[in-house]
Amino acid sequence: VTPTGPPPARRTFFARRAFVGDPPRLAADVVLEVEGDRIAALAEGTSPPPGAARLEGVVLPGFVDAHSHAFQRALRGRVESSAGDFWSWREAMYALADALDPDTFLELASLAYAEMAVAGYTCVGEFHYLHHAPGGIPYEDANLLGLHALEAARQAGLRITLLDACYLSGGADGRAPEGAQRRFADRDGEAWARRVEDLLASVRASGSPTAAVGVAAHSVRAVPPPALATVAALGAHEDLVVHAHLAEQRGEVDECLAAHATTPAALLDAAGLLTPRVTVVHATHLSAYDVHLVGRSRAHVCACSTTEADLADGVAPLLELVEAGAGLCTGSDSHVRTDPFAEARGVELHQRLATGRRGLHRPVELLSAATRSGARALGWDAGVLEPGRLADLVAVRTDAPHLAGAGDDARPEDLLALLLFAGGPADVRDVIVGGEPIVRDGVHRLFGEPSALAARLDAAVSHALGLAGARRGDGTGHP
Ligand SMILES: [Zn+2]
Question: pTM for the full model?
Answer without folding.
Answer: 0.96
